[in-house]
Design goal:
Blueprint lengths: L1 H21 L55 H4 L12 E2 L3 E6 L2 E6 L3 E2 L1 H15 L5 E5 L5 E2 L1 H16 L3 E5 L3 H9 L7 E3 L2 H8 L1
Parallel strand pairs: 3-5, 4-6, 5-7, 7-8
Antiparallel strand pairs: 1-2, 2-3
């Protein structure tokens, strides 16, 4: 029996050496990795409907020239407009911090809303009246109801406005002056070159 077992031991040792070289252990089966074939089909993306695109119309079916355009509202034509009423525009009235003006028979009646016509007030009043008088061919009537004092600068303003009216082929008058202001114009001798009236109607008729 010893003679028959010797070749068997040698054969097992040779098999063990071969298994060590290949990296497998005794009695262990070789691991074979199996590759599972996956289907090559891709999921089809659903077309995203644009905000301005009609339902059922995809990007592929829309020409490039029409892509990115925003739907414009329908233009109004004479057929769908019907009869439109245009509101009548009222003539512009002068209403600032120092002057309140109204149009009476083509004459600008400007009421001075200040008790004192000094250097500060004179610059504002001159700008307001000059801008408004252009639309009336410089036919201006000044209302001095609220004015109590006039400085030398204020007197210069009145003379400047009177010259501007004559230069533009217009006229300027004044009304509702208190006794102190009337006396001031007499002392300075400005009353001879100015149209000073008692009422608004007389002042308007004088510059027509």
């Amino acid at each position: 029996m010893a003679k028959n077992s010797a070749p068997t031991v040698r054969a097992s040792r040779t098999a063990a050496r071969k298994s060590d070289r290949t990296g497998t252990k005794r009695g262990a089966k070789p691991i074979v990795k199996s590759k599972v074939a996956r289907p090559a089909t891709k999921k089809a993306r659903k077309p995203v409907a644009s905000r301005n695109r009609k339902p059922g119309v995809t990007k592929a079916s829309t020409p490039k020239a029409e892509r990115g355009r925003v739907a414009s509202p329908a233009k109004r034509t004479k057929g769908n407009l019907g009869t439109l009423r245009v509101p009548s525009r009222k003539p512009k009235m002068l209403n600032s911090t120092h002057v309140e003006g109204t149009m009476v028979d083509g004459v600008l009646v400007a009421k001075l809303k200040c008790e004192k016509l000094g250097e500060y007030e004179a610059s504002i009043v001159q700008g307001d009246i000059s801008a408004a008088a252009k639309g009336t061919s410089w036919k201006v009537a000044l209302d001095f109801t609220d004015v109590q004092l006039i400085s030398s600068v204020g007197l210069g303003l009145i003379v400047t406005l009177n010259k501007a009216a004559k230069t533009n082929k217009g006229r300027m008058s004044m009304f509702n002056l208190n006794p102190n202001l009337l006396n001031l114009f007499k002392i300075t001798r400005l009353d001879s070159g100015l149209l000073i009236k008692s009422t608004a109607q007389e002042a308007i008729e004088a510059v027509k």
